[in-house]
Structures are given as structure tokens and as C-alpha cells.
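ok so I'm stuck.
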Amino acid sequence: MKKGIIVLSLFDGMSCGQIAFERAGIKVKKYYVSEIDKYAIAVTQANYPNTIQLGSITEWKSWKIEKPDIIIGGSPCQGFSFAGKGLNFNDGRSKLFFTFVDILKHYKPKYFLLENVKMKKEYQDVITELLGVEPILIDSALITAGRRERLYWTNIPNIEQPKDKGIVLNDILESEVDKKYYLSEKRINLIFNGIKYGVTNKICDRNGKAFTLSASMGMGGGYEPKVEANGTYRKVTPKECERLQTVPDDYTLGVSNTARYKMLGNGWTVDVIAHIFRGLK
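replied:
not stuck anymore, here's the structure
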């Protein structure tokens, strides 16, 4: 551990895991990742140029890597999510969980971490049986200004609930925001007339929590959280989404806002992961 650990991060996204290891004070010797989204890869390499990109997880049998000390990942959740279609393990994306298990069995690392959404107990139990540990449910709202309930399966010891920091949305909002983030009168009328526009029409309480960020934010159409501002309403900015996920300000710069919203919606709440990683010490 003194010389640093070797990490294999699957479904790496924009490498929130690397930020978390750093924040937890865990030295990393080598960081292997599997990711296919070119924008997420670009953000990762801009921030962590020594990251070793391996490509698609489906090609894992051809990888030539050192034995990892820990394997981490958040496998695609669309087939498990209550917000999804309930396709569970028959969904092609969710089947990649079994690839995660295959890789875990092959490398036999000392530690592992798998993150996923809240799901039906029957699906949760399948994952629990295959990984051999019960998950812990943590809501990111304890440590940030946004709600995000996630299940974490890990054999890292002594994981408890984080202490509630009492952070509200108003604490992380930017003071000056470009006018392009403000909603049109038409959009505002749609929201307040109760007409569905995207997946949500609700305005977040500035003195409360933002609702859960999702990858759908990258699709446009009203999926972003919205707040009251200057007598009208606007959507949250990419920088504010970074703060909701406890990612450093401007970490995702260099790609389009569409790509930024998507990867932040897909990403981990860094401080939750750092909280878990501290168990390694």
C-alpha cells in the first residue's frame, strides 16, 4: 500500500474513482480503466493523463495488465432502475454486471466495489449472492446538496453512513449565471400549467435538495434540475452539477455542455466513494 495500489476501474466514465482515491489519501500506482464514451475518456485524460485506457469491457480477455489490488465499477443500471422499464437482467446493458463478476473471479483482487441504483429486492439479491456481500444504501444528500440513493456492494471494511453535513442547494449555486441557462416564458408556462415536459417539471427548493441527476440531462428537453433565480427560473449549470456530485469545479470542461450533463448524471458522488475508500486505510 505504501508504494500505491493498482486499480482496475470498469465502466469508468470520467474517472470519479481517481478523484475519490486522491481525496481519501490513497496512493495509486497504476490506474487501468475500461470506458467507451469518447467524451468521458477525454475528460479523464485531461485530468489524469497517466490513466491506462483499455477500451471496451467486452474485450477484457485480451487485456494484458498487472493484477489489480481493487476492482471498482458502476455497471449500467438502466435495466435495474425503478425509473427504467424493469427489464432487469434481460436488458443487454445490465447483463454487463455478469461481465464484472467474471472479471472479479478472474483477477481475484483483495478488494472490490460495485455501485448501482436502488432496485427490486429480487434483483438486488442476485447481485448480493454473486458478490458475497450485502450492499449498503447511502443517499448522497447526507454530504451534498442533491439526492442520490445508491447501493454499494464492497468488501472494504467498516463502512458506515456518512455524517449529515446539512448542505442545501443554495450553498452550491453560482452567483452569476449566463442567460442561456434561464427558461423561456413558454417553458415556464408549460411547467406551471402542469403539462409534462421531459421527466420533471418541478422546481427545486433552494433551501432543500436537488433531485437526483441523471444521464438524461444530456438529452435536453427539461431533464435538468431547475431553480428560482432573479425573479424567474433557470436550469442548474454544469458547474453546479459538478458541485452536486462533489466533483472539482470545471473538472468536465473541454467538452460540450451536453456531454458534461450526461457524464455528471452518470457519475459517482465523489465524496461518498472517498468515504468508502477511507476504509482501505
